[in-house]
Amino acid sequence: MIILGIVLLVIGFLLKVPILWTIGIIVLVIGAVLFLLGSMGRAVGGRRHYY
Questions:
Q1: Whole-number mean pLDDT of the chain?
Q2: In contact, 28 and 13? CB cutoff 8 Å
Q3: Residue 45's pLDDT is what?
Q4: Phi first, then psi: what are they for 31, rounded to 5°?
Q5: Are 3 and 30 in contact (CB under 8 A)?
Q6: What is the mean pLDDT of residues 9-35?
Q7: What is the pLDDT of residue 19?
Q8: Which of 23, 18, 34 is closest to 5 using CA atoms?
Q9: Around 2, how many Cα atoms within 13 Å sit in the side-chain half-sphere?
Q10: 27: which DSSP letter?
Q11: CA distance 41 to 32
Q12: Between the CA atoms of 45, 3, 31 and 35, what dihedral angle is there, to the nearest 10 degrees?
């Protein structure tokens, strides 16, 4: 999800599409939160690790 967020940010920036920029930020933040929770050993959505 982190990579998808970065890709959407870049595409939104290059094509000047604000909705892609916003969705990219949201996906990036969600991916970072899932990564942090998974790396702390907490099971998120039935999975121990999110890669």
A1: 83
A2: no
A3: 67
A4: -60, -40
A5: no
A6: 91
A7: 93
A8: 23
A9: 8
A10: H
A11: 15
A12: 80
